[in-house]
Design a protein that fits this description.
By secondary structure, the chain is of the alpha+beta class. 42% of the residues lie in helices and 16% in strands. Strands 1, 2, 3, 4, 5 and 6 form a six-stranded mixed sheet that branches. The protein is elongated.
């Protein structure tokens, strides 16, 4: 595709650098003359879309072009007499948008809707006419791209239009594909607009359309949009980058020679591969100059190696790392771990004997097609809207497996329902799209959650449970207890702990750690509806609450020391059949410890002689258990009830003051049978809010 502006007022110095080599260039003046000639006989395509048909047949040799002919005739007739601000007939715009999509490999339905995408918005054609002539599928896509009426929405028209497009994209990503191509052509012809309007459109493109192109994997559109926005919003940096590229054009480029060396290496290894030099686009050159400072010849482009199979990618990588000096820090494997936008490739770099560093991208031809065209390369994701609705209804409780409905899009569709205010929706949409990476975390039940990089356990809670996450009181990440504010990493396993009483709810500090719009909107809504909060403020430190029983002694432990009083140590609470040792303490009593207790090592270190201890045949025993939990009402009563159900007597209990909503309980218990200890500990762990039970 040409990145050249198609109007006479565009800056001439910007045009040569932004032009894509080897792409079909659209001659709008010729198309305009062809369009003004009107319809053509039914036995052939109109001259104005001959080049569109040619680009379409290059990707789809068996495509039925009759639908395109009918769509063009309707578009040309309805737009006849309308002119663009650049002076061309208006029909040249839908033709240009359709050519962009045809070159990316879009299927016939997308191209048909693209030709008609402005008819309902700007002419007397109605959606019912489109549906009657072209079917429900084309009608749905055209409706999704059509802007809402400014007379009805006023200043909220732009955010509401994007909301409408996002909802439609959730059912069919071809809606956003047409919008991206539409914006690209409008950006190419933006030179006829006033500077302030150019800047406004460029900012929306930067904040919303470019991130959407990135997420949908349409790199061919994204890179050109970036360059066009760069030229408008950062003219000084653009001119500096243009000067760098112009200076490099007059120097010897080392990359072709390096490419020849790579071809020779792969040919000798028997690997069939195509090696091409890909010049960097403007924004990429600007970024690399900020990263590396002064640029060398090899910094203005990269090598692209295309092979047939996945295994060939790794074979190429092995040869490159064997025959050249690899820069290990530059290696990334996006084949084993694809990006969230379908992108797959191997990235590496190596140093040449001349001192140049060449960056290399290795991928299959199918990966290359997807990397360039993203979801457009997937073709028609649905056979019909009715079947799509059936699939959506069958999978309504789970995130769709369809790659055209990734996790980030599902999140956008979920939270936009909770953001009725257009300004809130607009601000949060741009904030969400600013997240440039996505992670996958595993749920305790084996499912997965897609979250933006930097997401916390709070975000995971709302992604999994929705409004039920208001009662989240903690989490385990990779088996370890952690706070809700903890950030998650790609591949983490998260288990969320929910309270079971209605009084639990989020606190204001959750907003400091929530990254996803769904979590932020849900927490803000709850706080607004509960101005006084649901959780009582932490009281001043108070002494532990203790409940002391009357029984004491050594249980069924017997020391080999006549008439000695035996006591079970509180530090390790030994029970049968633990291996134990005793030590005589002040007063002649024998304190019994487990042999692995730290106190035993200390006693031996100071020269204390152990006393042999054994257990009586009776099965009852005394043990001290520590229960750690999140604070909530009635927790002590629920724990005591769970202990009583196991037939265990509470000798004493201590509850420490809560710290960061966590409470520590200590119970000394008399068990009728030591074999019942595991079951007792499981019963205590099952009490809601308790996350750990261990022996003292």
């Amino acid at each position: 595709m040409s990145a050249e502006a198609t109007n006479p007022e565009a800056r001439p110095e910007a045009l040569p650098e932004l032009r894509r080599r080897g792409r079909t260039r659209l001659d709008l003046r010729r198309l305009g003359r062809a369009a003004l000639l009107g319809p053509t006989p039914r036995d052939r395509l109109p001259d104005a879309i001959g080049h569109v048909a040619e680009a379409h047949r290059a990707h789809h040799p068996d495509a039925d072009l009759s639908l395109l002919r009918r769509a063009y005739l309707l578009a040309e007739t309805s737009h006849r007499g309308q002119m663009r601000k650049s002076g061309e007939p208006y029909i040249t715009h839908p033709l240009a948008v359709t050519l962009i999509l045809a070159e990316l490999g879009a299927e016939t339905t997308t191209l048909t809707a693209s030709l008609l995408h402005d008819t309902v918005e700007d002419t007397d054609v109605t959606l019912d006419q489109v549906r009657e002539e072209f079917g429900d599928e084309v009608c749905f896509i055209v409706d999704g791209v059509t802007k809402v009426e400014k007379i009805d929405y006023g200043a909220a028209a732009e955010p509401e239009t994007f909301r409408k497009m996002l909802v439609a994209t959730g059912n069919d990503v071809r809606v956003m594909s047409i919008k991206l191509a539409d914006r690209l052509h409008n950006m190419r012809t933006l030179g006829v607009m006033r500077p302030e309007k150019q800047a406004r459109i460029a900012k929306v493109t930067r904040d919303v359309l470019i991130p959407l192109a990135e997420r949908l994997g349409v790199q061919a559109l994204k890179t050109e949009l970036e360059d066009l926005v760069f030229a408008i919003l950062h003219p000084e940096e653009y001119e500096h980058t243009r000067a760098l590229i112009a200076a490099h054009a007059g120097e010897r480029d080392p990359l072709p020679a390096i490419a020849d060396s790579v071809r020779a290496v792969l040919r000798e290894a028997g690997i069939a591969a195509e090696v091409v030099v890909r010049p960097r686009h403007f924004v990429s050159v600007h970024r690399i100059s900020l990263k590396r400072g002064e640029l060398r010849g090899s910094d203005f482009g990269r090598l692209l190696v295309l092979v047939g199979e996945n295994a060939d990618c790794y074979a190429v990588l092995g040869e490159l790392h064997t025959c050249f000096t690899p820069v290990i820090s530059e290696f990334k494997d996006f084949i084993a771990s694809p990006k969230f936008n379908l992108y797959q490739s191997l990235h590496t770099a190596f140093a040449t004997p001349e001192g140049y560093v060449a960056e290399v991208i290795v991928r299959t031809r199918q990966m290359h097609r997807v990397a360039e065209a993203g979801v457009v390369a997937l073709g028609n994701p649905y056979t019909s809207p009715q079947q799509a609705e059936q699939v959506a209804a069958a999978d309504c409780d789970e995130e769709r497996v369809d790659p055209t409905r990734p996790g980030w899009l599902s999140r956008l569709l979920d939270w936009q329902q909770s953001a009725p205010d257009p300004d809130t929706f607009w601000d949060v949409l741009r904030s969400e799209l600013a997240q440039d990476r996505e992670i996958t975390v595993f749920r305790a039940d084996g499912g997965t959650l897609g979250l933006p990089a930097g997401a916390s356990c709070i975000d995971a809670a709302y992604a999994q449970y929705g409004e039920a996450a208001h009662g989240c009181i903690g989490a385990r990440v990779n088996g370890r207890l952690t706070s809700l504010s903890s950030r998650l990493s790609d591949g983490d396993t998260v288990q969320l702990l929910l309270a079971h009483d209605a009084s639990s709810g989020p606190t204001a500090d959750w907003l400091d750690h929530a990254r996803t719009p769904a979590a932020r909107i849900a927490v803000s809504s709850w706080l607004e509806s509960h101005p006084d909060g649901a959780r009582p403020a932490d009281a001043a430190p108070r002494p532990p609450l203790s409940v002391i029983g009357l029984r004491s002694g050594g249980g069924n432990a017997v020391a080999d020391l006549p008439d000695a009083t035996v006591r079970l140590a509180g530090c390790c609470t030994p029970v049968p059949p633990d291996a134990v040792e005793g030590f005589v303490v002040r007063g002649g009593a024998v304190t019994v410890h487990r042999v692995r207790c730290a106190t035993v090592a200390q006693m031996r270190a100071v020269g204390r002689t152990p006393v042999a201890v054994h257990w009586r045949a009776t099965a009852d025993c005394r043990v001290t258990l520590l229960a750690e939990s999140f604070g909530r009402p009635h927790l002590l009563a629920d724990l005591t009830e769970a202990i009583a159900r196991e037939g265990v007597e509470v000798v004493s209990a201590t509850v420490e003051p809560p710290v960061e909503q966590r409470v520590r309980h200590s119970y000394t218990l008399q068990l009728p049978d030591a074999t019942g200890l595991p079951a007792l500990m499981r019963a205590m762990r099952d009490v809601p809010g308790v996350y750990d039970v261990s022996r003292a």
